[in-house]
């Protein structure tokens, strides 16, 4: 049993070293432990651990009995010394076995949790990158739209200036036509007045010629 415990303890130490340091077998060990924790694996581990714990308590109880007997007798026989050393070695090995098994379980748990957190962090970083890329694309689209609006605004300003020039030219033409029409009206009035004067003169000449005859 002692040789078996030594073998198991060295195996556990090897597992711990493979979990602590990066190596090609680390992923295989983690995958094997993941599979071992599924189905009946936990029940088997708990059963083995419980059995070893019971045997450990039995060795501790045997050591306590030997120590009590030696105290009562006042002397320790060579047989009791050998049994005491044997039980102490077995208890130490079984305690180390249970402790190392617990360490392996906790290390596997923390490695898996760390891996999950790293994956979640990578997913968050990826989402942030996608969000930032989307922001960059959106900002580029807004910049292009702003440039388009500016060009349209400049075009509208130029069209407005041309229309203002046309309106000013039309107003100037209207003023010129108004002034010209006013001049025509004045000239027409003058001509009417001259025509009336000529008619009056003609009438006067007619009347004077009739008197002379």
From TrEMBL:
One of its GO terms (biological process) is protein localization to endoplasmic reticulum exit site. It is found in: Endoplasmic reticulum membrane. It is a multi-pass membrane protein. One of its GO terms (cellular component) is endoplasmic reticulum membrane. The keyword Nucleus does not apply. Residues 139-208 form a coiled coil. Keywords: Apoptosis, Coiled coil, Endoplasmic reticulum, ER-Golgi transport, Membrane, Protein transport, Transmembrane, Transmembrane helix, Transport. The chain crosses the membrane at residues 6-22, 43-64, 84-104. It comes from the Eukaryota. Belongs to the BCAP29/BCAP31 family. May play a role in anterograde transport of membrane proteins from the endoplasmic reticulum to the Golgi. This is Endoplasmic reticulum transmembrane protein. It comes from Erythroxylum novogranatense.
């Amino acid at each position: 049993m002692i040789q078996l415990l030594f073998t198991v303890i060295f195996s556990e130490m090897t597992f711990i070293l493979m979990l602590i340091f990066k190596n090609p077998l680390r992923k295989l060990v983690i995958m094997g432990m993941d599979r071992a924790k599924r189905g009946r694996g936990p029940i088997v581990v708990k059963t083995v651990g419980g059995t070893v714990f019971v045997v450990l308590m039995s060795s501790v109880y045997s050591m306590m009995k030997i120590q009590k007997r030696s105290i009562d007798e006042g002397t320790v026989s060579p047989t009791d010394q050998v049994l005491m050393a044997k039980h102490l070695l077995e208890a130490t090995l079984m305690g180390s076995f249970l402790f190392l098994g617990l360490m392996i379980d906790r290390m596997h748990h923390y490695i898996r949790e760390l891996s999950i957190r790293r994956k979640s962090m990578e997913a968050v970083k990826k989402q942030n990158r996608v969000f930032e890329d989307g922001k960059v694309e959106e900002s580029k689209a807004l910049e292009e739209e702003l440039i388009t609006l500016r060009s349209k605004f400049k075009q509208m300003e130029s069209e407005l200036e041309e229309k203002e020039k046309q309106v000013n030219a039309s107003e100037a033409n209207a003023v010129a036509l108004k002034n010209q029409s006013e001049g025509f009206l004045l000239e027409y009035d003058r001509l009417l007045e001259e025509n009336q004067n000529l008619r009056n003169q003609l009438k006067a000449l007619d009347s004077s010629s009739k008197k002379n005859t």
